[in-house]
Amino acid sequence: MSNSPVISAKKLSLTFPSNDGPVHALSEVDLDINQGEFVSFIGPSGCGKTTFLRVVADLETPTGGEITVNGKSPHEARMNRDYGYVFQAPALLPWRTVEKNVALPLEIMGMGKAERIEHIKRTLELVNLTGFEKSFPWQLSGGMQQRASIARALAFDADLLLMDEPFGALDEIVRDHLNEQLLKLWADTKKTICFVTHSIPEAVYLSTKIVVMSPRPGRVIDVIQSTLSDERPLDIRETPEFLKIAHRVREGLRTGHAYEGK
Amino acid sequence: MYERMMNSKLMQGKALPVLIIIGLILVFWYVMAVKLNTPWQLGVYERAGVTEWTNSQFINDTLNQDRPVLPSVHQVAEEIWNTTVLKSPTSRRSLIYHTWITLSATLLGFTIGTILGISLAIGIVHSRAMDKSMMPWIIASQTIPILAIAPMIIVVLNAIGISGVLPKALISTYLSFFPIAVGMVKGFRSPEQIQLDLMHTYAASKSQVFSTLRWFAAMPYLFTSMKIAISISLVGAIVGELPTGAVAGLGARLLSGSYYGQTVQIWSALFMAAALAATLVSLVGVVEKIVTRKMGVRT
User: Which residue out of B194, B197, B200, B201 would a mutagenesis test of the A interface target, given it has the greatest number of A Cβ atoms within 10 Å?
Assistant: First the structure.
């Protein structure tokens, strides 16, 4: 089980038709993601990083190539509730309290009430939202709302967590804090995490593997295996090792742009 | 000091502007009443051989005719008082009795119309075929003048043995299902794409998406539609009484009033209908407040 990759893409392509001709959102992407990895996808807008995540989640259908999620098709994986998805916006239902929002997937999956209460308690503890069970989303700050949405994605114990720029709309300080919490959560739960981001420091700080992508057509430029240890205080970002990885990511992104200029 | 406080309170609130408008309407009403009733009053004096009168006597007489062109406000108020407070509610001369007849048809028609409108909207949102085929008919149904179709509904339903409150209620339904259906189609489609994607990742069924997402997202639309629907339900019930020679109900009061030139009776029925409509709409508003508070809307 641990030997076979959680996500395996082979020559994965996705082309959207548009008025200005076909848009190649993904072009022949080959990628394996293993159990317990924290993988960041980084690249400029239109490089297909979000599209890749949406294909994994069966929110988009690829037009070429192959992809398996837990050894199954994305559709089967979705039907089996194999993954939790965190969107760019919290997308909390405004008429539900925090605990009811976290309960939403559990209700849909038909979990009994006693079990639901236990899951809600545990996941709200994981994201440090204990005490805010009865609050409505509008009563929370942006960072707390996004934490509630992470709790919702964790609530049903999927081993795979897909996160699409979850902290993109938050300010730097809140973001640092949430990154630290996310790493702790990852260490505690041993989940496989796919994380889409625009930010080089964020990608390097969080990841065990960084996938650098470039647009038109959306493809993988570089896959960097992080050499940083799993123990990561925030000031690790000033170490030469960290800067070296960041430099390689930046180089990759630059290569992508040079290609575009041709 | 106290007086100034009262003044500023009056100025800040809605009370003063409302009072000013009501005052202006009353003044305008009395001026028009005197003006419109003058020709008849002159005729009365001529027939009675009265040749001299004072201004105040003349105005007093124009405002207290038996069958004025435009009754004065105090005549209408007196009529309403006499036919509500001073009559037993079960009497055929009681305005309460007639209001209840119309109200029962309104509420029955509104209830059926709301259920029908919501059902249609559910079908339209979930079925492409219904979306394409039903919507044009729903809109076309509202282009037919209700006055033209009301007698036929009553006659046809009577012919198949349905009489009483139901035929009138169905005319209310005919009018009220429309805003509900149109509003709820929009409401059920109001969830954002990101929320629908979220439900998709949970592999939620259509009925789960409906019961946990679409229904709640549609609540603001439901109450807006219901406010429109309940007031036109009342219009429908009154119109349903007009062309059918109904003997009871606010529409019947309007009709018999116009047969016998009882303008005071007509105006008091009109005022009653307006008060009823306002009450019904604000009742929907109260329910809306309770529901939105339960749904955690910021207050």
Answer: B201
Q: In what order do the strands lie in the sheet with A38-42?
A: A83-86, A160-164, A192-197, A38-42, A209-214, A219-225
Q: Structure pTM?
A: 0.85
According to DSSP, residue B291 is labeled H
> What is the full per-residue pLDDT of chain B (299 aa) written as tens digits?
555 555 555 556 778 889 999 999 999 999 999 999 999 999 999 998 888 888 899 999 999 988 899 999 999 999 999 988 888 888 888 999 999 999 999 999 999 999 999 999 999 999 999 999 988 899 898 888 888 888 888 888 888 988 888 989 999 999 999 999 999 999 999 999 999 999 999 999 999 999 999 999 999 999 999 999 999 999 999 988 887 667 889 999 998 888 888 999 999 999 999 999 999 999 999 999 999 998 887 65
Range A54-67 burial, b when 16+ CB lie within 10 A, else e: bbbbbbbebeebeb
Residue A169 contacts B where some CB pair is shorter than 8 Å: no
Which residue type occupies B287? V
Residue B72 has phi, psi (to 5 degrees) of: -80, 165
CA pseudo-torsion sign B128, B133, B136, B137: negative
- Smallest Cα–Cα separation from A16: which of A59, A53, A63? A63
Residue type, B7: N
For residue B191, what is the enclosing H or E element?
A: none
d(CA B229, CA B232): 5
Domains of chain B, residue spans = 2-70, 95-294
Yes or no, beta carbons of A138 and B298 under 8 Å apart: yes
CB–CB contact A93 B213 (8 Å): yes
Homologous superfamily in CATH for domain B95-294:
MetI-like (1.10.3720.10)
Residues A236, A174: Cα–Cα separation, whole Å: 18
Q: Return residues 214-243 of B near A (CB < 8 Å).
A: 216, 219
Kindly state the DSSP code that residue A162 receives in the 8-state scheme. Answer: E
Coil, strand or helix: which one is B94?
Answer: coil
Among B202, B213, B214, pick the best mutation site for testing chain A contact (most A Cβ within 10 A).
B202
- Give dist(CA B277, CA B168) in Å, integer: 17
Per-residue CA distances from B39 to B30, B35, B46, B164 (Å)? 15, 8, 11, 43
Backbone angles phi, psi at B238, to 5 degrees: -65, -45
Class of domain A7-82+160-261: alpha beta
- Over the range A79-113, which residues count as b (16 or more CB within 10 Å of their CB) and which as e? eebbbbbbbbbbbbbebbbbbbbbbbbbbbeebee
- Cα B195 to Cα A62, A101, B235: the distances in Å are 22, 12, 39
Q: Give me the residue spans of the domains in chain A.
A: 7-82+160-261, 90-157
Residues in chain B: 299
Q: Smallest Cβ distance to B212: which of A91, A108, A136? A: A108
Residues with Cβ within 8 Å of residue A10, at least 6 apart in sequence: A30, A65, A66, A67
